[in-house]
C-alpha cells in the first residue's frame, strides 16, 4: 500500500463560478487503476466529488477524463503508470457541469449528424445481409469505438472551434461509409465535405494517441478525405 | 458554464471549396519544393553564387520566357500557398468572429498587393530601364 496525491480540478456552479484544484492523499495497491483511487475519494474522503462511470472495465466509455494532461479512461489507466502526483481534469472543449462531469450533448450532436445507422434501399431481405470477411475487415477498426469522446476532446481544432465535427463523428461515419452493406456513403461524405468537416483536420494525431480502443483515428479521417477526392469507398 | 452553440446546425454550403483548398496545398507544396529549391540553387550556389546576381544577371535571365514563367509560378504558388495556410491558422485560432474577419481582410489585402506588384514587375520589366 502506497500513498499517491490526486490533484483534482473541482467545479460546482452552485457554490462558485470558479473552478479550483483540490488535492487528496489516496492509499493505492500496486494494481489499482485511477478509477479505484477516485472511488476512494468519493467513498471515504469527499462524497461530493462528481464523475461518470458505469462498467468500470473499459467498455461503456463513460469515464474519459484528462489525466496528467492527456485523455484517458480512468478505469483503464493504472496508477503505477501515472507517478505519485496525478492531475485529473474534466475533458477539454465540452462544457463542464460539475467536477469531472462534462455535457456530452454537443459531442452526441456531431455523432447524430453523420447518420450513424445502416442505410439501405429496396425491400429488406428475409435473412441477414451477408458480407465477406474481407468486406468486414475493411472497417473493422472503426467498429471498436465506445464513444468515450477522448479523441474529440483531445483535438486542438475542436477546443477552438466547437462546430468542427470532431474525430469521433468521422470515425462513426467511416464505419458506415466503408461498410459494403450500407448505401449512404455518398450522403455521409457530402455531410463531411462541410467547412467544419474532414478538411478541418490538421493530422495532429492527438485523437489516435488518446483513443483507449487503439483505433487509428487519424488514419480513418485520412481515408474519408481520400474517399471524397477519389470517389470510391 | 460556457454555453456552446448547437453544433453543425448552420445551413451547409454545397461547394467543395475546402476540399479544393486542401488539394491545392498539397499540389502547390510539391511544385514549390522543385521551384524554390531550384531557384535557391541557381541564385546562391551555381557558378559564383549570389555575388554574380545584379541587374544584368536578372535582365539576362528574364530575357527568356522560361525563367519568367518559373518566377511567375513561384510567386503565385508561394503567395497563395502561404495565404491559404494563414487563412486556416486564422480560422483555427481567432476566437471572435470580428477578429477573424479583420485578420482575413488584412491577409487578403496584403496577398493582393504582393501578387499585383510582383506580376507587374515580371511582365513589365525592361532591361534598358534607368
Ligand atoms: S474513436 Fe476511440 S477515443 Fe474516439 S470516441 Fe471512439 S473509443 Fe473514444
Ligand atoms: S467506466 Fe465504462 S469505460 Fe470506464
Provide the descriptors you would attach to this structure in a database record.
heterodimer, A: 233 residues, alpha+beta, 5-stranded mixed β-sheet, two-stranded antiparallel sheet, B: 130 residues, mainly alpha, 3 helical TM bundles of succinate and fumarate reductases, 4 helices, binds iron/sulfur cluster, binds FE2/S2 (inorganic) cluster
Write the layout of secondary structure elements.
The complex is a heterodimer of chains A (233) and B (130).
Chain A: E1 2-10, E2 20-28, H1 34-45, E3 64-67, E4 70-73, E5 85-89, E6 96-98, E7 101-102, H2 105-113, H3 133-138, H4 156-160, H5 167-177, H6 185-192, H7 206-210, H8 217-230
Parallel strand pairs in A: 1-5
Antiparallel strand pairs in A: 1-2, 3-4, 3-5, 6-7
Helix pairs in contact in A: 2-5, 5-6, 5-8
Chain B: H1 17-45, H2 55-62, H3 65-93, H4 97-124
Helix pairs in contact in B: 1-3, 3-4
Bound molecules: iron/sulfur cluster and FE2/S2 (inorganic) cluster.
FE2/S2 (inorganic) cluster binds at residues 53-56, 58-63, 73, 75 of chain A.
What does this 3D model show about the protein?
The complex is a heterodimer of chains A (233) and B (130). In chain A, a hairpin with a 2-residue loop joins strand 6 (96-98) and strand 7 (101-102). In chain A, strands 2-1-5-3-4 form a five-stranded mixed β-sheet, with helices on one face. Chain A has a two-stranded antiparallel ribbon with strand order 6-7. By secondary structure, chain A is α+β, with helices and mostly antiparallel strands. Chain A starts with a strand and ends with a helix. Chain A contains eight helices and seven strands; from the N terminus they run ββαβββββααααααα. By secondary structure, chain B is mainly alpha-helical. Chain B has one domain (21-129): Fumarate reductase/succinate dehydrogenase, transmembrane subunit (3 helical TM bundles of succinate and fumarate reductases), CATH 1.20.1300.10. Helices cover 72% and strands 0% of the residues of chain B. Chain B has helices at residues 17-45, 55-62, 65-93, 97-124. In chain B, helix 1 (17-45) packs across helix 3 (65-93) and helix 3 (65-93) packs antiparallel against helix 4 (97-124). The structure holds iron/sulfur cluster and FE2/S2 (inorganic) cluster.
Amino acid at each position: 500500500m502506497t500513498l499517491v496525491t490526486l490533484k483534482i480540478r473541482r467545479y460546482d456552479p452552485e457554490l462558485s463560478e470558479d473552478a479550483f484544484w483540490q488535492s487528496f492523499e489516496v492509499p493505492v495497491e500496486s494494481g489499482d487503476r485511477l478509477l479505484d483511487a477516485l472511488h476512494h475519494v468519493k467513498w471515504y474522503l469527499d462524497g461530493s466529488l462528481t464523475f461518470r462511470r458505469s462498467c468500470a472495465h473499459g467498455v461503456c466509455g463513460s469515464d474519459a477524463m484528462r489525466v496528467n494532461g492527456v485523455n484517458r479512461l480512468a478505469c483503464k489507466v493504472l496508477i503505477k503508470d501515472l507517478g505519485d502526483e496525478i492531475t485529473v481534469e474534466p475533458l477539454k472543449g465540452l462544457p463542464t457541469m460539475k467536477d469531472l462531469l462534462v455535457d456530452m450533448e454537443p459531442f452526441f450532436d456531431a455523432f447524430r449528424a453523420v447518420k450513424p445507422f445502416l442505410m439501405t434501399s429496396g425491400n429488406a431481405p428475409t435473412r441477414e445481409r451477408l458480407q465477406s470477411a474481407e468486406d468486414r475487415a475493411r472497417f473493422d477498426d472503426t467498429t471498436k469505438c465506445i464513444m468515450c469522446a477522448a479523441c474529440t476532446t483531445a483535438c486542438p481544432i475542436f477546443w477552438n472551434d466547437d462546430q468542427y465535427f470532431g474525430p469521433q463523428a468521422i470515425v462513426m461515419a467511416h464505419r458506415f461509409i466503408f461498410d459494403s452493406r450500407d448505401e449512404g456513403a455518398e450522403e455521409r461524405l457530402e455531410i463531411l465535405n462541410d467547412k467544419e468537416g474532414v478538411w478541418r483536420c490538421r493530422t495532429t494525431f492527438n485523437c489516435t494517441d488518446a483513443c483507449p480502443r487503439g483505433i487509428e483515428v487519424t488514419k480513418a479521417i485520412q481515408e474519408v478525405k481520400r474517399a471524397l477526392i477519389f470517389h470510391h469507398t | 458554464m460556457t454555453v456552446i452553440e448547437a453544433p453543425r446546425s448552420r445551413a451547409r454550403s454545397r461547394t467543395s471549396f475546402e476540399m479544393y483548398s486542401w488539394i491545392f496545398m498539397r499540389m502547390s507544396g510539391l511544385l514549390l519544393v522543385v521551384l524554390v529549391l531550384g531557384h535557391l540553387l541557381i541564385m546562391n550556389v551555381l557558378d559564383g553564387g549570389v555575388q554574380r546576381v545584379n541587374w544584368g544577371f536578372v535582365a539576362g535571365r528574364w530575357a527568356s520566357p522560361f525563367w519568367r514563367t518559373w518566377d511567375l509560378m513561384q510567386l503565385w504558388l508561394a503567395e497563395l500557398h502561404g495565404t491559404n495556410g494563414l487563412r486556416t491558422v486564422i480560422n483555427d485560432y481567432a476566437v471572435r468572429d470580428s477578429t477573424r474577419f479583420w485578420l482575413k481582410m488584412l491577409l487578403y489585402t496584403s496577398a493582393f498587393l504582393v501578387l499585383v506588384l510582383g506580376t507587374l514587375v515580371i511582365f513589365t520589366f525592361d532591361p534598358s530601364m534607368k
